[in-house]
Amino acid sequence: MKAITCLLFALMLAACGRENAQTTVPSVTAREASPELAATSSDKILAWLECEECIDGELKAVVGLGQDAVPALAETLRNGTSSERRASYERQLAKSYDDLRNYVQRDPNCKGAREHERNHCRLSVRQDEYITRYRDNLDALYKVRSARALAEIGGGEAFKHLQEAVNKREPRADVRDAIATSLEELRKKQGPQGIPVRG
Description:
Blueprint lengths: L1 H18 L1 H4 L5 H4 L8 H9 L7 H7 L5 H10 L3 H24 L20 H27 L2 H13 L4 H18 L9
Helix pairs in contact: 1-7, 4-5, 5-8, 6-8, 6-9, 7-8, 8-9, 8-10, 9-10
């Protein structure tokens, strides 16, 4: 039971870490998220890439940018987060891990416990594994959301970038599936060659 409590706390810290990013990590600028974002309406695109529940019209706002958003979304689809954003997020994750480790070490149930009773007093994942897992998840999120926005925006350039991403052989199956689904949705709207279907 205590191991489950610690795991839930770890997940909660990771989820809440993004909410606390404004106070613990410098805010993400458009240039940090992707160099291409600096040339577009970066706030709208960044809001879509990082929204939690995405219930405030974030995707609709990006689609409203039209073709102006395509270069930034294509860049993010190809590369995920920028090196600056990754570094910023890694610092945030390192702090989150340290906070979790400190919490577990202060757990009153761990003090005076015998060695065989202390399993819940240790983290089951090393810091580098923790950082890699959540950093890779952020990259995946950026790619998946970029693909979805490109499919919604449509047009020949969006089609081209989605087709290139499908051919790239993304290592993560969830990202591959999301890109393929986005391309298929765009094909339904525009036809198999990315040419808009006239209705």
